[in-house]
Design goal:
CATH topology: TIM Barrel
Number of helices: 9
Radius of gyration: 17 Å
Shape: globular
Order of helices and strands: EHEHEHEHHEHEHEHEH
CATH architecture: Alpha-Beta Barrel
Number of strands: 8
Largest sheet: 8 strands, parallel, barrel
Distance between the termini: 14 Å
């Protein structure tokens, strides 16, 4: 029987607001250490600061790339990826070119992702943000297939900056499309422990959320054994 994992180990503790301050980012990193979150997820200009705070600590730093629209040039995404890794990012979450996907320019979308994956190198996981709320079912499946073919490690639902976030139905579809090996990240609008557990049950193996602390404190409050939130 597989050992159960703590909920905290699924969570990418996220702060991507434009007005986020260093004080808030410092708090984000301190919370990630305290609760044992997998990572902190921040904008690329904030990677170096967070990496300095998390040096030799367990949580890693994720940089978003091409965020939140995904509509910038591939060259810009590649540069941002390389700079973020130089600054200390250990994972990259890049936004797919949604317009190109809708144009059915699948070759461009594939190469856009593939070049970011190549820039990241073999040791850095790349997650591809699909922005599922803007796609129909066929487009979601095609986007997943393109991300997989390009060598990405994960597909991810949402930026959290569009019209809707993650849904259980989308997680199921994404998991069904990519199979058991590739990662699936649920992100956007996940605010409670129950929300997170539903996503995990549907097939997510990473949760992007800004509400990680409230998930953990709610779990502890309801856990008589004192365990740190097992699913």
């Amino acid at each position: 029987m597989n050992k159960k994992k703590s909920l905290a180990s699924f969570i990418d503790h996220t702060l991507l607001k434009a007005d986020a301050t260093e004080a808030q980012l410092k708090q984000l990193c301190e919370e990630a250490i305290k609760y044992g979150f997998a990572t902190v997820c921040v904008n690329s200009s904030r990677v170096k600061f967070c990496a300095s705070l998390l040096k030799k600590k367990k949580p890693k730093v994720i940089s978003v790339v091409g965020f939140p629209l995904g509509a910038m040039s591939t060259t810009a995404k590649v540069f941002e990826t390389k700079q973020a890794i130089k600054d200390g990012a250990k994972e990259i979450d890049t936004v797919i070119n949604i317009g190109a996907l809708k144009d059915k320019n699948y070759k461009f979308v594939l190469e856009d992702i593939r070049k970011v994956v190549k820039a990241a190198g073999k040791r850095i996981s790349v997650k591809v943000i699909l922005e599922t709320c803007l796609l129909d079912q066929e487009e979601k499946r095609i986007a997943c297939a393109l991300a997989q073919e390009a060598g990405a490690a994960f597909v991810k639902t949402s930026t959290g900056f569009s019209s809707a976030g993650a849904s259980v139905e989308d997680i199921r579809l994404m998991r069904e499309t990519v199979g058991p090996i590739m990662g699936v990240k649920a992100s956007g609008g996940i605010r409670t422990r129950d929300d997170a557990l539903k996503m995990i049950s549907a097939g997510a193996n990473r949760i992007g959320a800004s509400a990680g602390v409230s998930m953990m404190t709610a779990t502890k409050a309801g856990n008589k054994s004192g365990e740190n939130s097992f699913y």
